[in-house]
TrEMBL record:
Entry's localization field: Membrane
Record-linked InterPro entries: AA-Vitamin_Transporters, EamA_dom, EmrE-like
Gene3D superfamilies referenced in this protein's UniProt entry, alphabetically: 1.10.3730.20
Keyword Membrane: yes
GO cellular component annotations of the record: membrane
Protein name listed in UniProt: EamA domain-containing protein
Membrane association type: Multi-pass membrane protein
Cross-referenced PANTHER family: EAMA DOMAIN-CONTAINING PROTEIN, INNER MEMBRANE TRANSPORTER
Keywords: Membrane, Transmembrane, Transmembrane helix
Annotated SUPFAM superfamilies: Multidrug resistance efflux transporter EmrE
Homology family: Belongs to the EamA transporter family.
Residue ranges constituting the EamA domain according to the UniProt record: 6-139, 150-285
Length: 302
């Protein structure tokens, strides 16, 4: 029981701190700092923290040459997901964007069925329908005011990029990496992606004041590095299924941040849309869990 309590604690810490991304990132962009600069600094700070943690834990940084290209691909995918998420904040607001981003398990299920011929279960189909109903409610909004279509497309690209990232990790040799090593290289390479991108559009922008540095430090350490390390702990203690379910706390925290910190409106459509998306994702995760348990029992009884 103590192990489970630890796992649930770290899973909640991971999802809650991920939900705080906008709280520290938006004040930086509101000061006129470009998305590329903020994200470059964010991932550089996170990778530095993870490197120090790995040194403390005496973990190896070694990788094979044939793994470099794969890690570069993962870095780009993670960077694209973060880039589209930041862009979507400008069009949708924090709460709505973070809620739609949480659809990535649905994308994973669909992509696995299309490219790896995994059978789509009835629960998956039901989850997809519920998820799209949730999005339609968010899109319609209250009083007939619709969401920006560009924002919807942008956040769906973010969710799709993250879904592809997850599939590549699960279907490649890097799945045998420790969580710390994989996250370190992904963060470092994502930072490199934004450094190159920033150099083509005028260069990195300097942070203007102490408040900006504090926000950047909290974004890098609390809402990135700590979130990733906490997720590793949670998976180790209670497994990926429980961790994924407790990940539902992320959009809930993000909605609260949007309402309390950025004066975003909380409406009936937003609440119902969030609930439907959380139900859809939970249905995907739980059905996958029970399907695997049933398959394992069939093997054992043969």
């Amino acid at each position: 029981m103590n192990t489970h309590v630890k796992g649930y604690f770290w899973a909640c810490i991971s999802s809650a701190t991920f939900g705080l991304i906008a709280l520290f990132a938006l004040p930086l962009t509101q000061k006129g700092i470009s998305h590329d600069s903020v994200l470059c600094y964010r991932f550089a700070g996170a990778s530095l923290f993870l490197a120090l943690w790995m040194i403390f834990k005496k973990e190896s940084f070694a990788i094979a040459k044939k793994e470099m290209g794969l890690l570069a691909l993962l870095g780009v995918l993670y960077a694209l997901s973060a880039q589209y998420l930041f862009l979507s904040y400008d069009y949708l607001g924090v709460g709505t964007a973070s809620t739609i981003l949480f659809l990535y398990p649905v994308f994973v299920a669909v992509l696995m069925a299309v490219f790896f011929k995994e059978k789509i279960k009835m629960a998956t189909l039901a989850a997809i329908l519920i998820a799209f109903l949730g999005i339609s409610l968010l899109y319609k909004g209250d009083q007939g005011k619709s969401l920006n279509p560009l924002g919807i497309g942008t956040i769906l690209l973010s969710a799709l990029s993250y879904a592809i990232y997850i599939i590549v990790v699960n279907k490649s040799r890097v799945q045998h990496f420790s969580g710390y090593k994989l996250t370190f290289y992904v963060m470092a390479l994502s930072s490199g992606y934004f450094l190159i991108k920033a150099q083509t559009t005028g260069g990195l922008m300097l942070l203007p004041d102490t408040v900006a540095w504090v926000n950047l430090a909290l974004l890098s350490l609390l809402a990135t590095a700590l979130s990733c390390v906490a997720m590793v702990f949670a998976v180790q203690y209670v497994g990926s299924t429980a961790t994924a379910i407790l990940g539902a706390l992320e959009p809930v925290v993000a909605v609260a941040v949007g309402v309390l910190a950025f004066n975003e409106a909380i409406t009936g459509s937003l609440i119902l849309g969030v609930l439907l998306i959380l139900i859809a994702v939970s249905l995907i995760v739980l059905s996958d869990y029970f399907y695997k348990r049933l398959a394992a029992q069939k093997i054992l009884t043969k």
